[in-house]
Amino acid sequence: MTTINQWDGSKLSSTTVDGDALGQSGEGGRPKRRLMRSAVLQYEANKRQGTVKTKTRAETAYTENKPYRQKGTGNARRGDRNSPLLVGGGITFGPRPRSYRQRMPRKALREALRSALLGKLGDEQVVGVGGKVFGEPSTKTAAAAMAALGVGGSACVVTPALNEIVWKSFRNLPRVVIRRAEDLNAYDVLAHDHLILVDDAWATLQSRLAGDKEGSK
After folding, report:
1. Helices 106-122 and 201-213: crossing angle, nearest 10°?
2. Residue 17 contacts by C-beta under 8 Å, 6 or more apart in sequence?
3. Tell me: the pLDDT tens digits for 80-135?
4. 2-34+105-213 is classed in which CATH architecture?
5. What are the residue ranges spanned by the domains of the chain?
């Protein structure tokens, strides 16, 4: 049973959490830590641009002439200024542009989301809110609502559909992100301290996860 609060922190109603949609029936209610770790690594890897590049000896712009003659100077034999041994020369085994992209099966990602939600519920870090949203976008009102709900630190606000007032109100708060229920993933859940479910977001999540478990989505 999860309590649904109003934006001012007062209790509005209660809702029942469907354990089958989160995979409780077959796994005894235990989150799959390895799967969640794999999902987080994938999301973080896919954020990398892979555009870092250093110049090799062939790409530096120094002259290829010897700085001094081979013999008679008392110095060691020296090649051109492009040598990796000199400051400004080419870089040996430096980073090159590449793709860090990883892929996981869709069902594995959904199972990781189930485990992440299960862990948040077990840690009592899920807050449900409902009722009338503030009339106009206001970051100050959003911050006051989070304080009234007892949510400190980072938070992921989940809405059943695009809600412009909620989005504009919470987008400027530090360490707060807004996601639609159909876009929520395991990384969003695990990367934030609390999960704020707005209106029917939890029902949308349950329907999405249960439908995928049955193979209809």
Report:
1. 140
2. 1, 2, 121, 202
3. 889 998 888 999 999 999 999 999 999 999 999 999 998 888 888 888 888 777 78
4. 3-Layer(aba) Sandwich (3.40)
5. 2-34+105-213, 49-99
215: number of Cβ within 10 Å:
7
Is 180 exposed, middle or buried (CB count within 10 Å of its CB: 0-12, 13-18, 19+)?
Answer: middle
Strand order from edge to edge, sheet including 155-159: 11-15, 2-6, 126-130, 194-198, 155-159, 176-180
Q: What is the pTM of this model?
A: 0.79
| The amino acid at 131 | G
**155 φ/ψ angles, rounded to the nearest 5 degrees:** -155, 150
Looking at residue 171, its pLDDT comes to 92
